[in-house]
Inverse folding.
């Protein structure tokens, strides 16, 4: 069964570009193309799409208002899978700010309007970005179908058609697209799926596949918290980071937090500003050679790696443009490896919702040096790629629903403080 798409953009040229970028995808069908939010809601009320591509900056009813209206429609139709929204944004700061607000409000993901050397290149970039996001959305839908009431079909087709879509989602074997890229990541080859064998020599692997060689043990002292996250990250961070900072404050625990969120430049600054307004800790985009401060949350700048370097008693931020790792820059693997050295494993790492496998290799290094690793569970993840991959590697100490992570982390840190 085809995934039905509604295009919403005030530019006729860009609506045509989106439609052209999806041409030839046998399992994707554009069922409508409208020029403003009001028309989008009118269309949705008569024809139920699976997914909406939504421009954020439109006259009249803008992207945020339209998203809220779509969410109201979803809430009023609990018998149907909710309509997903992929935000289409410019690189401008205003567009980035609105996009972060939309993601925090529950939009599935976003892409940026491509800037190519010509129309053909722009269409190719748009197609690569958008199809990857649609595939990820389909995968999420399949995952969610396991908790839908028995007998209800996910895409409205036959059971045979839904099963075929599910198999394609899990294996990643779709026509023309070999893998989905994280938000803001640079193009790369397809990553192994979560279910792909890790190999006998993989860190923490065993014949059963899910048992870590390293027993679950909290470090003697926790000096930092690390977070790796991608698709669904802005909403997940908005949900847990204010609570985590508040709980650490209540315990009078002053430690830094470091975040890799897969996003392009400009968007990470908007994310930092939004979280800073919500948190008791100071949230900022990381700057090169800055000395790390307690009660600060550092977010890796879009398009750059974030590393940690110790010099004597102090730890400093390193921000660079070294090549992407596994298609990601910033990369959670890069941050985790550097933290293993800078803090000698005295860290807690959180791998949250997101597509791909970033964080899996870095988690193995953290475990070998004594770190503690928590993965978000599948049910609360938008996409269970990153947490699912690290779970499959055997290097997870706990797997938790998102809502339980702040309390658990605060309790673990408090436990190490009481040892002293």
């Amino acid at each position: 069964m085809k995934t039905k798409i509604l295009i919403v953009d005030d530019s006729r040229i860009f609506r045509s570009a989106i439609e052209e970028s999806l041409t030839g995808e046998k399992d994707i069908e554009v069922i409508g193309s409208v020029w403003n939010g009001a028309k989008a809601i009118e269309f949705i009320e008569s024809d139920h799409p699976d997914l909406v591509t939504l421009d954020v900056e439109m006259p009249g009813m803008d992207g945020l208002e339209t998203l809220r209206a779509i969410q109201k429609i979803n809430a009023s139709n609990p018998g149907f899978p909710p309509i997903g929204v992929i935000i289409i944004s410019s690189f401008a700061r205003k567009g980035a700010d609105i996009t972060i607000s939309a993601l925090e409000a529950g939009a599935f993901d976003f892409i940026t309007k491509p800037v190519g050397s010509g129309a053909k290149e722009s269409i190719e970039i748009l197609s690569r970005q958008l199809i990857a996001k649609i595939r990820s959305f389909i995968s999420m839908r399949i995952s969610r179908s396991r908790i839908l009431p028995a007998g209800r079909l996910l895409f409205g087709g036959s059971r045979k058609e839904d099963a075929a879509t599910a198999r394609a989602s899990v294996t990643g074997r779709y026509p023309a697209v070999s893998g989905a890229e994280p938000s803001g990541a640079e193009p790369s080859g397809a990553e192994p799926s979560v279910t792909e064998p890790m190999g006998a020599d993989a860190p923490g692997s065993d014949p059963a596949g899910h048992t870590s060689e390293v027993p679950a043990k909290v470090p003697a002292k926790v000096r930092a918290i690390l977070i790796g996250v991608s698709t669904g990250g802005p909403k997940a961070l908005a949900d847990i980071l204010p609570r985590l900072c508040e709980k650490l404050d209540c315990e009078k625990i002053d430690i830094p937090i470091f975040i890799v969120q897969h996003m392009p430049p400009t968007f990470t600054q908007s994310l930092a500003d939004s979280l800073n307004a919500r948190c008791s800790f100071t949230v900022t985009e990381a700057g090169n050679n800055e000395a790390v401060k307690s009660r600060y949350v550092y977010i890796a700048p879009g398009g750059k790696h974030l590393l940690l370097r110790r010099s004597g008693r102090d730890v400093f931020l390193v921000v660079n443009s070294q090549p992407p790792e596994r298609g990601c820059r910033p990369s959670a693997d890069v941050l985790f490896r550097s933290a293993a050295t800078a803090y000698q494993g005295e860290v807690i790492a959180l791998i949250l919702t997101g597509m791909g496998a970033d964080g899996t290799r870095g988690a193995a290094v953290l475990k070998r040096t004594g770190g503690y690793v928590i993965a978000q569970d599948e049910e609360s993840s938008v996409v269970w790629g990153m947490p699912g991959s690290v779970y499959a590697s055997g290097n997870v100490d706990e797997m938790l629903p998102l809502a339980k992570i702040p309390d658990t982390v605060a309790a673990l840190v408090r436990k190490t403080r009481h040892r002293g």
